[in-house]
Amino acid sequence: MHRAILHGSIVCFLTLLTQIGGVAWLIALVTKHRLLTFASLYVALTIATMFVAPMFGRVPLNCRSEGAFKMQSPVYCVLNRNYVSPELRNVVQELADNVSNQFPGTITLALDGSFPFFLTVFRYCRTCPMMMGENWISPSIIATIQAICLAKLLRQSAISIL
């Protein structure tokens, strides 16, 4: 009974943390070398997710980007927290490129994206000047976009003062 509660808790924790970790742990439970099997399955499922997530309307943000936009930490990529809608990825990349052109050397960091499957809970405000329509995105992506908008506003204000 205690083992079932322990493994059930592990599955819930891994699912909440990574979305696919719970599945990997459930499969690993039937093997003798659980940790090795879990690690192998998690890597395999993470790679497979890159190909399956676009069927659900999610694409990964680039984890190894050397350009104007990248993930703040590789941990988000390992935890599969770097998935967004294709439209959002294009908007964020375009905004990051614009900020980098206006302020050379600036790198825009994404703190978190979303899971590769299903919809997230937060909807982007429809009245925002960058109209994202019906796309569902993570609050941290909204904060990144708002920070970029604020940087542009501050720059325009500073230019008008001078």
* Content of β-strand: 5-15%
- The radius of gyration over CA amounts to 19 Å
| Biggest beta sheet attributes | 2 strands, antiparallel
Computed structural class: mainly alpha
Assembly of the depicted chains? single chain
Question: Mean of residue pLDDT?
Answer: 78
Description:
- With 162 residues, the chain is mainly alpha-helical.
- The protein has 6 helices and 4 strands.
- It has a two-stranded antiparallel ribbon. Strands 2-4 form a two-stranded parallel ribbon.
- The longest helix has 23 residues.
- About 11% of the residues have low confidence.
In short:
The chain has 162 residues and is mostly helical. It has 6 helices and 4 strands. α1 (2-18) packs antiparallel against α2, α2 runs antiparallel to α3 and α5 (86-102) packs parallel to α6.
Summarize the topology.
Layout: H1 2-18, H2 21-28, H3 34-52, E1 59-60, E2 69-71, H4 74-78, E3 83-84, H5 86-102, E4 108-110, H6 139-161
Parallel strand pairs: 2-4
Antiparallel strand pairs: 1-3
